[in-house]
Amino acid sequence: MTNLCVEARDVTRCYKGGRGIKGINLAIPMGRIVGLVGANGSGKTTLLRAITGLTGAEGDLRVNGLNPWTQRGQMMEDITFIADTAILPRWMNAAQILDYVQGVHPRFDRTKAERFLAGTTVSRKMKVRQMSKGMVVQLHLAVVLAIDARLLVLDEPTLGLDLVFRTTFYRTLLEEFASEERTIIISTHQVEEIEHILTDVVVLSEGRIVFQEALDALEERFFELRAKPEREEEVMRLGPVAEWRSLGQGHFLFDLAKPAGVTAEMIGLLGEVRSPRLADVLVRLMEAARPETAGVGEWGHTVKENKQ
Ligand SMILES: Nc1ncnc2c1ncn2[C@@H]1O[C@H](COP(=O)(O)OP(=O)(O)OP(=O)(O)O)[C@@H](O)[C@H]1O
Question: Which of 44, 54, 191, 202 best tests ligand 1's pocket when mutated (most atoms within 8 Å of CB)?
Answer without folding.
Answer: 44
